[in-house]
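Hi everyone, sorry if this is the wrong subforum. Our group has a chain we'd like a structural model of before ordering constructs, and none of us has done structure prediction before. Sequence below.
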Amino acid sequence: MRASVAALTIVGVGFFGAQAASGQDHPVATPAQAQPPAEPTAEAIVERHIELTGGREAWESLQSIRGLGSIVIRGANVGGQLAMFQTRDGFRMSVDAGGPGAQVTIRRGEDAWSVRPDGTVQKISGGALQKLLRDRTFNPLVDAASMFTSMAMAGVEDVNGSPAWKIACIPSDGSGAVEHRFFDVASGLQVKVIEQGAGASAALPTEMYMSDYREIGGVKVAFATSIGVGRSSVTITIEAMQANVDIPSCLFEPPPGPVIVEKKKQESPAETLGAFMKVDIAAMSKGEAIHWLGRLDAAKRSVDPADPDAESLTNALSEFHRLCVEKIRGAASPR
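Answer:
Right subforum, don't worry. Here is the predicted structure as tokens:
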């Protein structure tokens, strides 16, 4: 995710932004409403999706959701458990990949924090914070008029073997990001989202595929999501969720941690390389390797193509990424 657990800080929120369910088993939803017109507008497609997933009243009545799921980090032979809690003013997601601690993302109001497996707390800022705030609602499409400055049809594309309407959405937060949302022509459900940041991050967009929609608590949500950036990918499967339950507000308080790290400037790719070269790979734990996967992925995304050393930087970062993956695979292998 960003095939590392750390990357769930950014993309996980987008995934859970439209999740609301209970812990009971339900059959897969199979919408049978009439098909949209031959040349629908972007607004008509979005409105149809809202109605197919329960309607505005059902979405607007949601007050909280909580759930459990599992994740698989492909290419690294790593799996883990995920827990999520969300209210209208708070969000918490923790991912435990079997290391010394969990990676936790917390949002309370306009502030957000990332808690590393070693307990270090870092305040989230910049584009990552904008993304968390943009996905603060249970279903961003319900408030699309204020969420996006524009939504425009961008044709029809194949998604997993079926035609899907493609809509280009410009977030209203001024981040410069662009989202492309895909809605299956036959079912009307959202089946794919491509999120593309601004600046250096635009070179590696995040792709999310949603499937296994189920009717829970008055709304229909995807219980399976695959998220990928570049060569990295994570599969998330929801196993049990509940809607409109009491969630203690203390879950949205950041822990004190051994140190609060304020991110003053983005680490350059060269700085990441320098820091990694000081690491004792032989003594690196599985949790540390997972942390470095996210850090190296972020460095690769920030390499400036115009930099004369761009190719060598990318190659070195890719090689270090491979070493971390091998370290994780070795730690995951039975002894």
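For your construct planning: The CA atoms of residues 185 and 200 lie 33 Å apart. Confidence is low (pLDDT under 50) at residues 1-32.
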